[in-house]
């Protein structure tokens, strides 16, 4: 994790830029202090008292995902692979977000669970619950390390501090407002951070487009060839040479397993929607978030494509050179260094810091909920007063932040962090989605199938990653001949298929629960009226989840066709 301050490029900030960043941090901490006044119970701390309007939770929903990986990772992908990266948005996000709003959120919200693992406990019992809670907690600590590493990188490039000092300072900032105000502090900061991120990246994109000569300039100058501007078949992105197999990998591995696994069962995202004030608002939250999600590629991926054209170090790296020590993760930072004047640079730095803090705070707030409710209260200390578990949540927040400083070291080993993140999703999200979706729509699935399917699916993903070329760095052996994000798509597909097969086999040999116990947990056994608000039919079109989802689906299909 050694990244000394004297052998990397610096961002040439002045007093105006530092003032803008300092003001931003003052506002962030102020929100944390204000949110603390509203925390009187554990539901307030962990789920904002289920009181927030849909537009707030919708923007928080998407802002929680606009973390370090979204900004740095997707721009790195844009620089390395080009416009095929849009699949992470238009195939690998929006359809699943719409599905979550229409089908899944009524189950989460209506069952009054406080977390996704708690839903698993109600459906499958303690075995699947414990496996899910542990794997989720581990995943959040690893992903928080990614966000923290990149936040510390900004501090390192801005102030020249050694990376380990930057890590500690960055962690302390996020810890302060998350521990003070719980989920409300995280959510309100995420709404602020959404606007700050857009205010930072939109001008940078416009300036970069002007510098390269507009879209025509990109078409004329992109390397190695114009295929970088086509989204299909995406062979560079997947690392799968056969175009048909590459498309299958994108559609099944990314578009179905990884995408639906992340957006519909990842408590980091679901927690924001669960903080809504009603079932209808909870359903609208991910659907509202889908609209800005569709257009994020234009301020994240396009700048990455341009950076690989106009930044000499990146152009050299892409051409097979050493790039003077830079990596694709540096694409946005290098654009800021070369294109933005002082003042605008300060806004951009604040925007990047906002994105990294949003991502890390989302990981930490989800971790402290699962740790407190699903592990500590369920298996360690039961039946204590409510305030005790709020206190445990704050302790867990501190512990998770400390551990994230360590896991940031793992993230620092990857030149393109999307490779690392997709490996983690294949391990943790893909098997969970298989178990979840099967249990929700198949009443015969048993408790034993729940935990055995999860364990088997995770094991399958790990085996594929080890047999791939570089998915796990030095631990990989390269037998399968696939690498990078394509290996992650294959690992996720394997996890899903193995999980389903094991679950079906085990279910046929074990006893199912009686149907009366599965009301609200299995689709066919749940009365429709319990999944909707009584007045939902009278809402105007712009507040109707199904109408909004229909508009979103049409828009994302149009975008896919335009950039075919």
TrEMBL record:
Record's GO cellular component terms: plasma membrane
Broad class of the protein's primary localization: membrane
PROSITE patterns: NA_SOLUT_SYMP_1, NA_SOLUT_SYMP_3
GO molecular function per UniProt: D-glucose:sodium symporter activity
Transmembrane segments: 15-35, 55-76, 88-109, 130-152, 158-179, 191-209, 244-264, 285-311, 344-371, 391-414, 420-441, 448-467, 487-506
Gene3D superfamilies cross-referenced by the UniProt entry: Sodium/glucose cotransporter (1.20.1730.10)
Pfam families per record: SSF (PF00474)
NCBIfam families: sss
PANTHER family: SODIUM_GLUCOSE COTRANSPORTER 4, SOLUTE CARRIER FAMILY 5
Recorded family membership: Belongs to the sodium:solute symporter (SSF) (TC 2.A.21) family.
Name of the featured protein: Sodium/solute symporter
Organism, scientific name: Aeromicrobium terrae
């Amino acid at each position: 994790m050694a990244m000394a301050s004297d052998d990397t490029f610096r961002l040439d900030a002045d007093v105006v830029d530092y003032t803008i960043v300092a003001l931003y941090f003052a506002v962030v901490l102020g929100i944390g202090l204000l949110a603390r006044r509203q925390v009187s119970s554990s539901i307030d701390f962990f789920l904002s008292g289920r009181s927030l309007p849909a537009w707030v939770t919708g923007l928080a929903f998407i802002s929680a995902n606009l973390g370090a990986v979204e900004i740095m990772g997707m721009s790195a992908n844009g620089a390395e692979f080009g416009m095929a990266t849009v699949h992470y948005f238009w195939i690998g996000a929006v359809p699943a977000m719409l599905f979550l709003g229409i089908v899944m959120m009524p189950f989460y919200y209506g069952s009054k669970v406080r977390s996704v693992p708690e839903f698993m406990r109600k459906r499958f019992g303690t075995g699947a619950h414990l496996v899910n809670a542990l794997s989720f907690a581990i995943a959040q600590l690893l992903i928080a390390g990614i966000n923290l590493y990149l936040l510390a990188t900004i501090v390192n490039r801005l102030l020249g501090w050694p990376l380990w000092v930057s890590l500690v300072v960055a962690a302390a900032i996020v810890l302060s407002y998350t521990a003070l105000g719980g989920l409300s502090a995280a959510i309100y900061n995420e709404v602020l951070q959404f606007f700050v991120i857009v205010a930072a990246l939109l001008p940078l994109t416009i300036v970069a487009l002007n510098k390269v000569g507009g879209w025509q300039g990109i078409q004329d100058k992109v390397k190695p060839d114009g295929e970088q501007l086509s989204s299909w078949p995406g062979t560079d992105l997947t690392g799968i040479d056969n175009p048909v197999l590459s498309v299958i990998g994108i559609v099944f591995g990314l578009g179905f397993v990884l995408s639906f696994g992340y957006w519909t069962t990842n408590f980091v995202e679901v927690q924001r929607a669960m903080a809504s004030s009603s079932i209808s608002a909870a359903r609208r939250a991910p659907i509202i978030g889908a609209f800005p999600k569709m257009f994020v590629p234009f301020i994240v991926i396009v700048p990455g494509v341009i950076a690989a054209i106009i930044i000499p170090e990146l152009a050299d790296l892409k051409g097979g050179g050493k790039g003077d020590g830079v990596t694709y993760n540096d694409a946005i930072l290098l654009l800021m260094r070369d294109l933005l004047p002082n003042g605008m640079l300060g806004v951009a730095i604040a925007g990047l810091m906002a994105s990294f803090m949003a991502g890390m705070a989302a990981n930490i707030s989800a971790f402290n909920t699962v740790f407190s409710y699903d592990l500590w209260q369920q298996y360690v200390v039961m039946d204590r007063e409510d305030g005790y578990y709020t206190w445990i949540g704050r302790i867990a927040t501190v512990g998770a932040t400390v551990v994230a400083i360590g896991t940031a070291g793992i993230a620092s080993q990857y030149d393109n962090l999307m490779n690392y993140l997709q490996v983690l999703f294949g391990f943790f999200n893909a098997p969970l989605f298989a178990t979840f979706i099967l249990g929700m729509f198949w009443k015969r699935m048993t408790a034993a199938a729940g935990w055995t399917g999860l364990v088997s699916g995770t094991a399958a993903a790990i085996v594929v990653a080890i047999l791939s070329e570089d998915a796990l760095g030095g631990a990989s052996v390269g037998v399968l001949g696939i690498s990078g994000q394509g290996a992650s798509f294959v690992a996720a597909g394997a996890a899903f298929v193995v999980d389903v097969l094991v679950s079906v086999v085990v279910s046929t040999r074990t006893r199912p629960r009686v149907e009366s116990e599965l009301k609200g947990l299995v689709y066919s056994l749940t009365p429709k009226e319990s999944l909707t608000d009584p007045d939902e039919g009278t809402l105007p079109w712009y507040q109707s989840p199904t109408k909004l989802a229909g508009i979103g689906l049409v828009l994302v299909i149009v975008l896919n066709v335009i950039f075919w």
